[in-house]
Amino acid sequence: MSNPILIIDDDEGIRHALSLLLMEEGYPSLQANSPIIAKQLLKSHTFSMVITDLNFTQDTTSAEEGLALIQQLRLDDEQLPILAITGWGSIEIAVKAMQHGANDFVQKPWENERLITIVRTQLQLAKANKRSQKLAVHNQLLQNELGFISGLIAHSVQIKQVLATLSQVAKSDVSVLLTGENGTGKSLFARYLHDLSTRKEEQLISVNMGAVSESLFESEMFGHVKGAFTDAKSQRIGRFELADEGTLFLDEIANTPYSQQAKLLRVLEEKQFEKVGASKTQSVDIRLVAATNADLTHAVATGEFRKDLLYRINTVQIHIPPLRERIADILPLAHYFLGRVIEKYAAQGRTLTAQAQRALQDYHWPGNVRELAHIMERAHILAPTEHIDAEHLNLTPVQQPKHVEIHPYCTVDTAHLTLNEIEQDALVRRLAFYDGDAVAAAQSLGLSRSTFYRRLNKAGK
Predict the structure, then answer these.
(1) How large is the average pLDDT for residues 185-210?
(2) How far apart are CA 372 and CA 183, in angstroms?
(3) Which of 370, 428, 434, 369 is nearest to 401 (CA)?
(4) Burial of 412 (0-12, 13-18, 19+ CB in 10 A)
(5) Rounded to an integer, what distance in angstroms lies between the CA atom of residue 193 and that of residue 144?
(6) Residue 228 and residue 292: Cα distance in Å, rounded?
(7) Spatial distance between the Cα atoms of 305 and 255, rounded to a whole number of angstroms
């Protein structure tokens, strides 16, 4: 249901007639018989429009009260449609009303059809302006976003399973928590989920919670009104309002200041918030997707993260595996990034030699997919010919243990390897032999899938 229209007039008959006319056209309304009552209602309600008289004192035709009210309304809300209406009409008063902030002017007695046309037009313009403002802010956010951009490469069994799970939960509105190491592409999977959801025509708003300072948290998330604090020169739309009817993606949610977590929880549970400096409560309808590389259960145990907030954000939890566990995706991703780099620089094509491909598959990838993207760009720049060799990848021996063969059952030069590195090498090779199928690799070693991953992670530390 749309927000009501506020009718302000000291004449009860006028208020009643306007209310009936608006109701017939499907517009709900509330009434105030004076500017004082109107201001009280404006503090507690959100209105789609204001229709106001200009004179509220008998035998007064100066319109000063109404003009002062319009000016204050415009200062409080730059987007609110205001229609001035009076029985003492003149060109001079109409001009003054527009100068003080009114969008249009109607003289009593009005023509119903004309008044409704004005109301409908102003509401449509306000909706379009608000959407344009949200799009402008969203475009700026997209331009400011850091990190890599890639397609979703799903050659490995692990990522195919992730995509299948995301597809399954996309049509519902349940909260989803994406977990995984830095650089695994959690933001891309959030986008994938949004694009499959019923909210795909609306905005996906991303917020890096690690970049939101404690002092600016409320302003950033909920917005502020003009004059709310010293630097509040204009009204600001918060991230929740930007994401209304769409998806809100809270990245690095573990970094949310503890002092602000209760405020975040309240909005997620009640779907309501107040802008900084405003007493008026606004409703919001969002689908929440959060992401973290932290162990939130441990954070709860250490008092760094609220347990009730954790319960609220992880209705469905999906783990994004690191790149070293998705060996089947490494070369397809490398070729994808290489193609993007060639397109970016409008340069001659480059190809990976067999040695370079082997080096990529053998590398541990502590920075995951993001690191792969950066390495491919660097290699393209450093390679003197059209062939990218292992040396152009600049994968250091400390990060990349020396191997002799890629066959999973062969021996390796273990003279300079630790026991963990030897075990890791064996596990990674076994996984590669089965084309990234962790279940098959684990079964061949007599291990469960979870034990296989646990030992792989332990060996890689």
Answers:
(1) 93
(2) 9
(3) 428
(4) middle
(5) 22
(6) 32
(7) 9
In angstroms, rounded to a whole number, what is the distance separating the alpha carbons of residues 170 and 176?
9
Instruction: Name 11's Cβ contacts closer than 8 Å, sequence gap at least 6.
Output: 53
Nearest to 368 by CA among 110, 187, 104, 135: 187
Q: What angle do CA 30, 219, 46 make, to 5 degrees?
A: 5
**Bridging pattern class, strands 223-224 and 236-237:** antiparallel
Question: Alpha-carbon distance 419 to 168, whole Å?
Answer: 41
CB 309 within 8 A of CB 254: no
Is the CB of residue 406 less than 8 Å from the CB of residue 429? yes
Which range has the worst mean pLDDT, 4-18, 55-69, 150-164, 172-186? 55-69
Side-chain half-sphere CA neighbours of 162 within 13 A: 28
User: How far apart are alpha carbons 37 and 39 in whole angstroms?
Assistant: 5
Sign of the alpha-carbon dihedral angle for 106, 112, 115, 118: negative
Phi/psi-derived region of residue 271, left when phi > 0, alpha when psi is between -120 and 50, beta in every other case: left
How confident is the model over 40-88, as pLDDT tens digits? 999 888 899 999 998 887 666 678 888 999 999 998 888 899 999 887 6
| Side-chain-facing half-sphere of 204: CA atoms under 13 Å | 20
Residue pointed to by tokens 């109409």: 94
Question: Does position 142 have pLDDT exceeding 60, yes or no?
Answer: no
The answer to whether residues 240 and 286 touch, using CB atoms and an 8 Å cutoff, is: yes
Instruction: Give helix 327-345 / helix 354-362 axis angle, nearest 10°.
Output: 120
pLDDT at 292 over 60: yes
**437 Cβ neighbours under 8 A, 6+ residues apart:** 157, 431
SS3 per residue for 140-173: HHHHHCCCCCCCCCCCCHHHHHHHHHHHHHHCCC
79: three-class secondary structure by DSSP: coil
Query: Angle at the Cα of 313 (from 309 to 318), degrees rounded to 5?
Result: 140
Identify the bridge partners of residue 416 per DSSP, sorted by sequence position. Answer: none
CA pair distance 461, 447, nearest whole angstrom: 20
Domains and CATH numbers, the chain: 5-126 (3.40.50.2300), 157-319 (3.40.50.300), 324-400 (1.10.8.60), 402-461 (1.10.10)
Around 196, how many Cα atoms within 13 Å sit in the side-chain half-sphere?
Answer: 17
